[in-house]
UniProtKB/TrEMBL annotation:
It comes from the Bacteria. It comes from Cryobacterium breve. SUPFAM superfamilies: MOP-like, P-loop containing nucleoside triphosphate hydrolases. InterPro entries: AAA+_ATPase, ABC_SmlMolc_Importer, ABC_transporter-like_ATP-bd, ABC_transporter-like_CS, Mo/tungstate-bd_C_term_dom, P-loop_NTPase, Transp-assoc_OB_typ2. The lineage of its organism: Bacteria, Bacillati, Actinomycetota, Actinomycetes, Micrococcales. PANTHER family: SPERMIDINE/PUTRESCINE IMPORT ATP-BINDING PROTEIN POTA, SPERMIDINE_PUTRESCINE IMPORT ATP-BINDING PROTEIN POTA. This is ABC transporter ATP-binding protein. Keywords: ATP-binding, Nucleotide-binding, Transport.
Length: 402
């Protein structure tokens, strides 16, 4: 793709002390956020976390109860939506059905009396590789093609900031994965600042340079997709929203300059000190299911591995590239293990006695205060219920669309 005149850097975005209250509830409690110019930034979280409200505040579609919004260093808090150097791509695309693709893209330029609207519209369509369909109507295009037209219409105005509100949600699974890669490529080509709002963790991890995970109107954690967020979650919410985690609570019973030792129902579990946020007292630690290994016999103990077991397999679920095992371990609870399918058939069957182990370097420790009386298995906060509901809804949608 040739970027041409569109290779202009976007502007930085800064939110300072943003609050947004609606009658009866607070959507955003206190939000400070800084997004560098030219970056691809994602706001990620479940429904009701405040991410869409944040996008609407930046777009000028809502007014903050308190705080300031700055784009390129200029305070735009009091400006109307049409006065801001911002464009939005919505999930519905919002194309005019009676206009051709070219007319849709040129529409905003004509209204603003920009010189050569047709030439600029063709240039934007070439960028998204749709100039050959310029004479068609939106209903003659596929979902992915309509999404690209909406993107061309947004970037043709050369906004300092492009807002993406769940733009791929209406596409089928295969096309959504393809468009994730294409959107990232286009962002790098045009050099604009992209703010992408989504509940889809894979979508955010694939495209964004930086991700902010939101919960209850606040940012719980922000950083690069790997390793900051997935490998080193700070809270139970982040650990469970970005994939799944086995979380445990116990007292720190030993420490060195490189690791801490935590007692989990009689099992001594080591965690690297630089991967743990708390180093004394009751702590919560965790390990990802894909980092664990399943054994039919007790593994040989080693200084660089943690071992749990014996336990009993209570469920086996085949999912193509991997198999999920649920293992009940006495005095601890049910643990999840993902095993890559390297051979025909499961490693273990329901009812089998097994042991689990993982490399010490794959463990992590959370900032969360342990829940009193919760036992060795950490009681995740109640918002993980909404996470589970969101995942079920997403899975059902994908299965229906596949």
């Amino acid at each position: 793709m040739a970027s041409g005149a569109f290779a202009e850097a976007g502007a930085d975005l800064e939110l300072v002390g943003i609050q947004k209250r609606f009658p009866g509830f607070t959507a955003i409690e206190h939000l400070d956020l800084s997004i560098p110019a030219g970056s691809f930034f994602a706001l990620l979280g479940p429904s009701g976390c405040g991410k869409t409200t944040t996008l609407r505040l930046v777009a000028g579609l809502e007014e903050p109860t308190a705080g300031s919004i700055l784009i390129g260093g200029a305070d735009v808090t009091q400006q109307k939506a049409f006065q801001r150097p911002v464009n939005t791509v919505f999930q519905s695309y919002a194309l005019f059905p009676h206009m051709t693709v070219l007319e849709n893209v040129a529409f905003g330029l004509r209204r603003r009396k920009i010189a050569d609207p047709v030439g600029k519209a063709h240039e934007a369509l070439r960028l998204v590789e749709l100039d050959h369909l310029a004479a068609r109507k939106p209903q003659q295009l596929s979902g992915g093609q309509q999404q690209r037209v909406a993107l061309a219409r947004a970037i043709v105005n050369k906004p300092a900031l492009l807002l993406l509100d769940e733009p791929l949600g209406a596409l089928d699974l295969k096309l959504r994965r393809q468009m994730q890669l294409e959107l990232k490529t286009i962002q790098e080509e045009v050099g604009l600042t992209f703010l992408h709002v989504t509940h889809d963790q894979e979508e955010a991890m694939t495209m964004a340079d930086t991700i902010a995970v939101m919960n209850k109107g606040r940012i719980e954690q922000m950083g690069a997709p790997e390793p900051a967020l997935r490998e080193l979650p700070k809270t139970a919410f982040v650990a469970n929203f970005l994939g799944q985690s086995n979380l445990f609570t116990g007292p720190v019973v030993g420490s060195t300059s490189t690791s801490i030792t935590v007692d989990i129902a009689g099992h001594r579990v080591l965690v690297p000190a630089d991967r743990a946020h708390r180093h004394a007292g009751e702590v919560t630690i965790g390990v990802r299911p894909e980092k664990m290994w399943l054994h039919r016999k007790a593994p040989v103990e080693a200084a660089d591995r943690n071992v749990m077991g014996p336990g009993r397999v209570i469920d086996v679920s085949f999912s193509g590239v991997s198999t999920q095992y649920l293992v009940a371990v006495p005095y601890i609870g049910t643990l999840i293990v993902f095993a890559q399918n390297m051979a025909f058939g499961p490693v273990a069957d329901v009812g089998d006695e097994v042991w689990l182990d993982w490399h010490v370097e794959h463990g992590f420790g959370l900032e969360d205060e342990p829940v009193p009386g919760a036992g060795p298995r950490f009681a995740a906060d109640t918002d993980t219920r909404s996470i589970a509901a969101q995942r079920r809804e997403s899975l059902v949608t994908e299965l229906e669309e596949a």
